[in-house]
Amino acid sequence: MISRYERLTLTLLIVMLMNTTGCTTPTGTDGDTWELAWQDEFDGDAGQLPDASKWGYDIGTDWGNAQLEWDTDRPENVSLDGNGNLAITARKESYEGQNYTSARIVTRGLFTMNTGRIEARIKLPIGAGIWPAFWLLGANINEVSWPQCGEIDIMEYRGQEPNIVHGSLHGPGYSAGDAFTNRYVLNSGTFNDDFHTFRVDWSDDYIRWFIDDILYQTITIDQVRAKGEWVFDHPFYIILNIAVGGGFVGPPNASTEFPQTMLIDWVRVYQ
Length: 271
Prior knowledge:
Layout: H1 4-21, E1 36-40, E2 56-57, E3 60-61, E4 69-71, E5 78-80, E6 86-95, E7 98-102, E8 104-106, E9 116-123, E10 130-138, H2 141-144, E11 151-156, E12 164-170, E13 180-185, E14 196-202, E15 206-211, E16 214-220, H3 221-225, E17 236-244, E18 260-270
Parallel strand pairs: 4-7
Antiparallel strand pairs: 1-18, 2-8, 3-4, 5-6, 6-7, 6-18, 8-17, 9-14, 9-18, 10-11, 10-17, 11-12, 12-13, 14-15, 15-16
């Protein structure tokens, strides 16, 4: 029979292990509790591709944004770094008719979410024309097209503005340059200096954006319906990518250094 002290010690050890592995139950701003539903901690050997049971690839170029890179499934563009991170790397090289390569990984066909909390701890790259993003896209895009499918940009970033990130919402009646959007400016330093946590809390009637647990934007169903249709009531899949060039950032210039890498420590979804 174990003593009361031993039981207490065992309980504390279990709590510590849960916190270490990320298996916590966070509380939302409305007092809601969330249960961990999906995660990737990106543990593994350097050079290993991301877990094929969790991630697939969009291979190609442009994607409707006039991007300049060819996105691949090569470890040179997307692989574990051996230190618990996934590295997505944009390179300047001639490949498939483009002058740059990068990667765009997706959970399409493997995992979707419909409301909940999603967050990732990321260290961003830097440089004019570098466009990393962490976002959600409606899984019905092939049936209804964009923007009817809906898009939630958890984090978008222009490499030439390294202390600013953007959070946006796209849908019918409020897309592209007319999207709901706001930006977050760091008080000091830049997003390529260190890791930061980018998060969205998504409910039936609002979506909220956070950086390092600081709320900086709320968009409600009533706000959206005043401009268009609320289409955030069906499954969405996750995307992580670095684009090179495109309408949001413009092309790289002589000051842009390559390669540029986005490091993702983890991605977690709570529902």
